[in-house]
Amino acid sequence: MGKHNESIAVEYVKCNLCNSDSTRIFMKVDGFNIVKCKNCDLIYVNPRLKFNELEKIYKNKIYFNNQSFKDTNYTFYGYENYLLEKKDIIYTFIRRLNVIEKYKKPGTLLDIGCALGFFLELALKRGWKARGIEISKVAAGYAKKHQKSPVFNGTLEEVNYKKESFDVITIFDVIEHVPNPKKTILQIKNLLKPGGIISITTPNIGSLPAKILGKKWEEVRRVREHIYYFSDKTLNRLLKESGFKILKIESAGRYFSVESAVRRLNIYSSTLSGISSKFTRILGINNMRIYIDPYYKITVYARKI
Ligand SMILES: [Zn+2]
């Protein structure tokens, strides 16, 4: 996993939403074409890395602790230091779980792509019977060791849960990675009890910041792992056609410590990041926690009909 000289297996796919293969180029990033379906406006990478190549990215032990956030010579993917940001991530999850609990009182919950299991930890504390699925062996291993919830290391395809066994299924920052979102959503529907709730967080390619930032947007710079770029419109359609009723779509911000927020600015401008970090150090506010919403991600809550 080094510089941009991969000569690895790629595959062509049809539109996951409408099965059309009529597209136009939406954007070219790092040698990959991001295309837009002329029929339904779904935006996706085509051709894209085959799933076994993607798996190598997710299974790489540095996925949740990736130095590429500091060194732009490396391929950009994963997280800078997921463990270090635990408190910020938990605070972010509290907001989402509060919304979920408006629709369902604590019952059975599955978190797909549970990473180190922070959402499971929170849900468990709030009385949910929570379990997780995680493709990364390192992350799943950590979750198994530190959380009291069962965690399956693998994909949704490989797991063998009983039909209609969950009240709630959460899938945060995952749907943009999966090879067949429609299939994933139908599998989720199958696992949800009637009236069960799905909650999805994903980057919103239809957002104004996404349009303004263009190729500099960190979500499109993750063109290897992000193979689908939903907007509220295309995500809406995916859910409706799969038998869900949309309850709420909200912008998904997150908590940062001032220090990590400033460090993250480096993705967009090293000068700005450098200047800001001097100021925040002088002001002594590096450990302060702030909620930042750049308005380029959405969380959707929907009910299985
Ligand atoms: Zn389409």
Characterization of this structure:
Helix 2 (86-103) packs across helix 3 (118-125). The protein has a domain at 86-255 and 290-304: Vaccinia Virus protein VP39 (Rossmann fold). The strands form 4 sheets. Strands 8-7-6-9-10-15-12 form a 7-stranded mixed sheet, with helices on both faces. It has a 4-stranded antiparallel sheet with strand order 2-3-4-11, with no helix packed on it. Strands 1-5 form a two-stranded antiparallel sheet. The termini are far apart. The model is unreliable at 1-6 (pLDDT under 50). It has 305 residues and is of the alpha/beta class. Helix 3 links the parallel strand 6 (108-112) and strand 7. The protein contains 10 helices and 15 strands. The chain is globular and about 55 Å long. Zinc ion (ZN) is lined by residues 15, 17-18, 20, 37, 39-40, 42. Zinc ion binds next to loops.
Key words describing this protein structure:
Rossmann fold, seven-stranded mixed sheet, four-stranded antiparallel sheet, 26% strand, disordered N terminus, binds zinc ion
Please render the helix and strand layout as text.
Layout lengths: L9 E2 L11 E7 L2 E6 L5 E3 L2 E2 L1 H9 L26 H18 L4 E5 L5 H8 L3 E6 L2 H10 L4 E3 L12 E7 L8 H11 E12 L4 H6 L4 H4 L6 E2 L2 H10 L2 E8 L2 E4 H7 L5 H14 L5 E4 L4 E8 L1
Parallel strand pairs: 6-7, 6-9, 7-8, 9-10
Antiparallel strand pairs: 1-5, 2-3, 3-4, 4-11, 10-15, 12-15, 13-14
Helix pairs in contact: 2-3, 9-10
Largest sheet: 7 strands, mixed
Looking across the biggest beta sheet, what order are the strands in? 8-7-6-9-10-15-12
The SSE order reads EEEEEHHEHEHEEHEHHEHEEHHEE
Pick out the low-confidence regions: 1-6
What class, by secondary structure content?
A: alpha/beta
Mean pLDDT: 89
CATH superfamily of the domain at 86-255 and 290-304: Vaccinia Virus protein VP39
Gap between N and C termini: 43 Å
The total of beta strands comes to 15
Based on CA atoms alone, the radius of gyration comes out at: 19 Å
* Distinct ligands: zinc ion
- The name CATH uses for the topology of the domain at 86-255 and 290-304 is Rossmann fold
Query: Can you count the helices?
Result: 10
> What is the CATH class designation of the domain at 86-255 and 290-304?
Alpha Beta
Helix percent band: 25-40%
Sum up the overall morphology in one term: globular
Q: Any idea what the CATH architecture of the domain at 86-255 and 290-304 is?
A: 3-Layer(aba) Sandwich
Strand content: 25-35%
